[in-house]
Amino acid sequence: MWVIELLARYLEDKPFEIVLEHSRHVADLALEVGARLGMTGADLLFIEEASLLHDIGVCQVHAPGLGLHGIHPYIMHGVLGRAILDREGYPFHALVCERHTGVGLTREEIIRQRLPLPHRDMCPQSLSERIICFADLFYSKKPGRLGERKSVAQVRKKLLPFGEEKVAVFDAWLSQFKYE
Ligand SMILES: [Fe+2]
After folding, report:
1. Residue 38 CA, ligand 1 centroid: distance in Å
2. With pLDDT > 70 as the criterion, what percentage of the chain qualifies?
3. Could you tell me the distance, in angstroms and rounded to a whole number, from the CA of residue 60 to the centre of ligand 1?
4. Residue 34 φ/ψ, nearest 5 degrees
5. pTM score > 0.70 for this model?
6. Domain residue spans in the chain?
7. Most Cβ neighbours (<10 Å): which of 22, 75, 108, 119?
């Protein structure tokens, strides 16, 4: 599959294996949600490809625990991934990268919290973007725990420090995506 080859061009060895396994779990859950919502064919294919590529930007971040020795802070991985996929000619997959941090970041949050990110809205917009962002919340990249799907309570707990409104977005997705 071309996406795996693309991923392998930017990540090697341990990071490649971690990102691929993590992304495979995200893709499977995102596909499950997409199918439940009646998506088919090209839409599901896009969900699968973009899920597998959503974390490609970690190749340029500093996260020694994951075997990553880039110069950028971890929070940049979405923006970095977008730049990579734009350059590779996949602008729609690129947007999934940029818009998957937590339940999304607003321009105001980026400015107010002085995050090291460009000042623009990074909230998932399309249905596919929202489904992949949602699915990603259930899986971590902690080696050894890649296959563990978090409970709804665990996801809520993880989001709460970032604000009640983040939990509210997640709760809205839970019902919209008919997740039990
Ligand atoms: Fe992820």
Report:
1. 24
2. 100
3. 15
4. -60, -45
5. yes
6. 2-149
7. 22
